[in-house]
Automatic annotation (TrEMBL):
Protein name, per record: Amphiphysin, BAR domain, AH/BAR domain superfamily
Residue ranges constituting the BAR domain according to the UniProt record: 17-237
Subcellular location: Cytoplasm, Cytoskeleton
Pfam families recorded: BAR
Organism lineage string: Eukaryota, Fungi, Dikarya, Ascomycota, Pezizomycotina
GO molecular function: lipid binding
InterPro entries the record matches: AH/BAR_dom_sf, BAR_dom, BIN3/RVS161-like, Rvs161/Hob3_BAR
Record keywords, A-Z: Cytoplasm, Cytoskeleton
Keyword presence, Nucleotide-binding: no
Broad class of where this protein is predominantly found: cytoplasm
CDD domains in UniProt: BAR_Rvs161p
Any single GO CC term annotated in Swiss-Prot or TrEMBL for this entry: medial cortex
Amino acid sequence: MSWSGFKKNVSRGTTTLMMKTGHVERTSDREYEVEERRYRTLESAALRLQKEAKGYLDSLRAMTASQMRIAETIDAFYGDSGATDGVSRSYKQAVEDLDAETVKALDGPYRTTVLEPINRFCAYFPDINECIKKRNHKMLDYDAMRSKVKRLVEKPDKDPSKLPRTEKETEMAKAAYEQLNQQLTDELPQLIDLRVPYLDPSFEALVKIQLRFCAEAYSRMAQVQQYLDASTRDQYASGDLDARVEDVLGQIRELSIAGTV
């Protein structure tokens, strides 16, 4: 930071402190303040959307990875019985295909149509925030100059040229502040209004990608059903499955090694 920049920061810090103590009057623009609050709401929501959109893809991968681990464990649990009726191997193959084909096939389109547009939208925030910061600095400079003029009017300086010179500097500070203030007041609402038409295609893509994943997951799991015992499905539908489970547990309890359970 240059010496000039350092002095400006110190001066602005002093002005801010004097505003808090009531020694310097703060410029207020209600219209701008409303738009900045709306922008902050948009910024917060967009950054949260960016985080959750990335989290969705990570969660999808984590879920299919977990399914694969479960499938491997079930396959090992069934052992030769699973190999005989094909149920555990079928389930394992289904989740492997879901991970290898469906999730990986959706990765690219999801990044292109959902993640990247959201990331590009959020990439504008640092520049906008810098503009807001600059506007606030110009406001502090203007308020500081107004305070100087007020003091010179109340207590004239020995140098008669100091007041008109300070008034001229105040007008320049006012013009710089008002230019940025008006620009933000005009353009922040435009940015906020553009959020819906910009993100609509990404939202549509998200829905379609979720639909495809769910449809393919359902299709693959449905294929596994043919290997399941038909009587098990019927008992589940009729509500008799609990009795069957209790019967098996009873047989386990009759074993001498399980007699203490």
